[in-house]
Each structure stands twice: as C-alpha cells, then as structure tokens.
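Kindly draft a polypeptide, keeping tokens residue-aligned:

***
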Amino acid sequence: MHVSQRNGTSDRTARIPAPRSPSRDAAEAALVEHYPALVRLAHLILPPALGRHRRVLAAHALVQRSLARRRGPHPGRHDAGGEDSAHDWLRARVVRGALRPPLTVSVGVALPRALGLRVFPRAGGTDELALDRALAAADPATRAALALTAFEGLGPASVVALLRAAGVPDPERASNGAERLAASCGPGTAGLLRGPEFDPCTVHLRPTDLLGRRRRARFAALAGTLVLIGATAAVALDAPSAPAPRPPVSAAPAAPAPVRVPAGRWADTSRVDFTAWPARGGLAADRDLVRRAVAAWAPGSSRTTGPEPPSLLYAGKVDGARVVVLYTGRSLVRYTEPGTGRARPALVETRADDSDVTTAAAVVLARAGGRTRYLLAPWIAEAGVRDLRDPRTAARPLRIASDGTTDPVSDGARAAVPGGCGGVPALQLRSSTLIVEDHAFLLVDLGGLSPVHLTWTSLPVPGEPARRPREAAGPLGLAAWSHAACSLPPLRDSGVRAVNRWEFAAQTLPERAGRALWVCTRADTWEGRGRVDVTLEPPGRAVPVTTVRDTAACGRFGQDVLAGAFWSAPRGTRYLLAAGSRRVVGVRADGAVSAGAPGPVLAARAGTPAPFRLSGRLPDGSSLPGWTTPSARGGG
C-alpha cells in the first residue's frame, strides 16, 4: 500500500513539531471539522484487547479530550496559526494518547457512557476480518504508522518525525513494519481501512446481557440484605473461631480451575478464535468432572507452569459419555469418560494455536459407528452438510442445539465412483453478521479434533495482482472442489489445518481436445509444514504430476510454480504439456523432448515417455525449475 498524497502534497515533511499550540478557537474549529478522521486514527492505534465496545468509546474519549491542556511540552509542532496547523497539533496529541499503555487508556480516560448498549463498527467480509487480525498482531507503533499513511497521507519522513515526537523509541522500525504489513495484506489495504468496517463513527448498537443485568440487580439487593444480617450477627458472636486446618504437606498441588470466558466475548473482540469460546454444555457446572479433565491433561499440575490455566470450552453428555473440551492456548484437549463399562477415560490433545474464525469454528466431540458429532463455535449462525462430489445438490440443514452441539453427521461412505472415491461430507457453516458479513465456508473432517478448512484460488487474470485464497462455499468453489474431493481422504490423520486448491494455469489442449487446468493443492498442518499435490486436469480423468512435502510452494511464500507431464490426445498422439504460474514468461524442456515456448505454457509432441528436464524464465531473467512426473524423472 502506498498513499502518497493529501490535499495535493506528496509529503508534509514541513510540518515538523514546535512546542507552541494553536489558538483555542483554531483548535476547536479543527476538531469539529476533522473529528471523524481523528477518531478513526485513534481507533486503529488503540489496543484491540480493549474489545470492540470499549475501543470505540476510548477512541471518541481520546479525541474529545485532545483539547485539554496538559503540563509539559505539546507533542506536535506547528506553524503559529491556521486551521491546518491546528489539525496537525490535534493529530499529534491523539497519536500520543493512543500510544499510551492499555491500562492508562482503559482506566485513566473517562469514557463516554452507553448504558444498556454495546457499540461496534459494522462487520465486514473475509478480507476485512483478515486485515483486522493482522492489525491485532502488530504493535501499536506499527498500527500508528499505517494509520498515518493510510488516513492522513503522510510520507515516511513525516510519519517517523511524528512518532518520534510521540515518544516511540524506534519510529523507523515502526514505519518499515507498517510497509511490510500493508504489503502482506495486499494492494487493497488502504481502501479496506477507509471502509465502514474500521469506522468508529458509524456503529451498530445491540443490548447488553439483559438477563444478566436482571440477575445482577437481584443479587445486589440480596447482598445488601446479607451484609446487614451479617453485621448484626457479628455483634452477638464474640467467640474466636477455630483455625482452618492446614493441608497435608505432602499433598500434590491441585490442578488449577480453568478459565471461563464470558458468553458474549466472541462478539466484542478482534481475536475470533478459541480464546473467545464461552464455557458451554449441561455439565459445565460440574466442577468435579472439569477438575478430573484438567488433572488428566496436567497430572500433578506439572503442565500448568505457563502464564494461564486452560479455558473450558465444553462439558456435557455426548451419546452417553461425559466429554470435556479445553483450550490451553496452544492445543485442544478432549477428555472423555465412557458412560458404561469399565473403559478408562480417554484424553486426546492436538495443536490448535493461531486459529481463526474458520479453523476455530468446530470441534469433534465424538465419532462412533460412522457418525461424527460436532461442537460449533458461538459465532456460527447456520450449519449444513453436503457431499463435495455433488456441488449441484444443496446442503442439508444441520440442527444446532442451544449448547452448540450438532446432530450426528454421517461419514458419507458409499460406493466409490470409477477411478474416484466414496462420498466426502463437508460442513457448510455461516458466521454471524455480528463479526463478518456474508461469510460461508467449508470444513471437512480428516481425523483431528478440529475439521479442516477448505479454500480455493481461481485462475489468474493477466495484468492483475495475484489472487488470494477465497472461501469455497460458492458455486464456483464447490464446482472446483468436486474435481479434487477424492484427494482429501489420503490426508486423514496427518494434522492438516487447511487445504487450498490453486488453479495456477489453464492450457488449450492440442487437436482441439478442450482445455486443461493445472492445479496445485496445498495442505498446511498445524505445525507449519506444507504438502502440495500437483495435478493436470484435462477433460476426463485427472493426471497426477507430483507430490512435494515440507515445501513453501503453492502458498503465500511460494507463488512461482512450473509443472509438466505427458498426455495422450483422444486419437492417441502423445504430447508433453507444461504450464507455469502468472509470472512465468517462458518455458523450456530438455532431454527426451527438446522444445521451448514464450509465455507460461508449452505443448510439444513426444514419443515414448522418458526423463526430461523442465525450466521456466521469470521476468527478472532468473530460472525456475519445473516439477515433472516420476517417470519423467527416470523413476526418481
């Protein structure tokens, strides 16, 4: 992202601070005119840990208090008069206030009051959600540098000067970090930041927990009565109480009580993942059961030396068994006590760190008899089940109980199609509009505690930036995955987190045989390793090209791809086909076939399949080695 102009100037480096402030009238006029922009600036810098409600209120409070005089030098420098210099002065004060430690923001500032209501900006789409998550992971100074560039049009020199004046120890690092953040989020970052999803002046309202407020009111009245009774009883009882018995010295430390997240946290946080799940289930109040689960995960509390105890996500009865689900900050833990027989409790733990709105959307509670029962995230508004091989049939609605558990889902086993596989069931889920608009996505059970997120990346368009993975729940995504559904079962029980189907090239086939797609399917694991399967998909049966493990290819950090394979036309003529991704400007084959072609695709007649080498040329003149089938590599 690069925003180089504001009010017709390329960089306002002349506005570098002086300790004098503008007149009161000029400052008030500038505040009224620029209030929405200043609030948006403060909102982006403030820590997301405040929650969406308090973050909006804190942004307004900071801007409203920016006229208050404080001791010590002012944070911005300006010219002696003029509305523009007053705006610069206010902006510097807002930046300095927003960069304060979170405790000062949340306690020291008298926030505007919204009794009985919670406020939050409009929910955006998946791009806005991904950007919000990236901003939450950045430090405040980096967010400030990005906001000053995107909202205020300041160049690097002005950003560095303003941050230095605001007390940032290393403003150059913050400015560089903002550039990297904008580049990683794509060319549309500035436009997304200016959208209503990041505007704290245009907000939605919803009531707070009405039932909870009534309970708290009744509890307050009861507590007052009990205090009065207790005070009266204390006058009558003057005998000293017996000392509490000491626990045995040899007793093992008890497992800590798990954290219980408030029910509405998921709708008021920028971190929509397992940390936002509340404790649910009919046995969530069974402290003995929960204690046994925590003790089984951390016997003798030897595994609780970290900063926080685990969070309780669920405790309830599932098909006759007692099930407890915990989140440790790094992993999911499922503890199961069988309802009958002498079977011992079972404990399963899998990685689940760095989850998000999709990969933290469901947890497998139980599998039995070819059926799976799920626990869905509190932000899931609708659920359905569909067969990936049949994109034209609508998803069958899946009932969600009040505690988030679903009806059992069949594994879809049925007769395999010729050259294919049996049914491949997928969950089709839709997120609540409180966190993201029009967001439906697919999950597939591949044996872990959390189902696998499916996405797809469509063919590149010449002259346009590289496309990002998108949700596969739409008609085009479903049609794409219907061709690759049978590639998913072999990934079972391999710790896969997400799978993206990338159609990196299309090729017109010789002899008017139609068009073929070149596809790279990348499976990312929770541990960070990736596996890719490259396939040529002509009309009819797909041709597997290669499988590569532990690679960055076909992902965010490996967008240059070239692959080749032998293909036989309907009349029997054999060809060597090869294709590269969008940046490949030339393809060359050597060995059994010697041929070359400008552009990203190559088709050459071939004899008996034999080893060949494939290379591509990139715009900077560098060479890209190509992937081939094992037979083309001499069986390697």
Q: What stands out?
A: DSSP finds twelve helices and 27 strands in the chain. The first helix runs from residue 24 to 45.
